[in-house]
Amino acid sequence: MDTKLFARGDDGEWTELGQGNRRRVILHTDELMLVEFAFEKGGIGALHSHPHVQGSYIAEGRFEVTVGEHTQVLSTGDSFIAPSGVVHGVKALEAGRLIDSFTPHRADFLK
């Protein structure tokens, strides 16, 4: 089996996304991917959509989260779902981290 089954907190390469934001792929299979995003205060995850279902857990910080026509402020321990094809994005109200899961995996994050 070639699938990585476990990851340590310092595993994975960070990809700089600009404006102080970055991401790292934690683990993935063809069916599922876990990704950590780190945001500086004021950092933006621009509104976008994709065919993947996304589940996000706020590991640290406070974010203004928009999913479709709904916007809420979420904090450490909160979570949200972005269904396939639905426009979504975040604004970091303070420095923070999100743990996102995608199904199927995001091939564009592996390039």
Explain what this protein looks like in three dimensions:
There is one protein chain. The protein has a single domain, classed as Jelly Rolls (Sandwich). Helix content is 0%, strand content 55%. It contains no helices and ten strands. The strands form two sheets. A six-stranded antiparallel β-sheet has the order 1-2-3-10-5-8, with no helix packed on it. A four-stranded antiparallel β-sheet has the order 4-9-6-7, with no helix packed on it. The model has no long low-confidence stretch (mean pLDDT 95).
Helical/strand content category: mainly beta
Overall spatial form: globular
What about the largest sheet? Answer: 6 strands, antiparallel
How far do the termini sit from each other? 22 Å
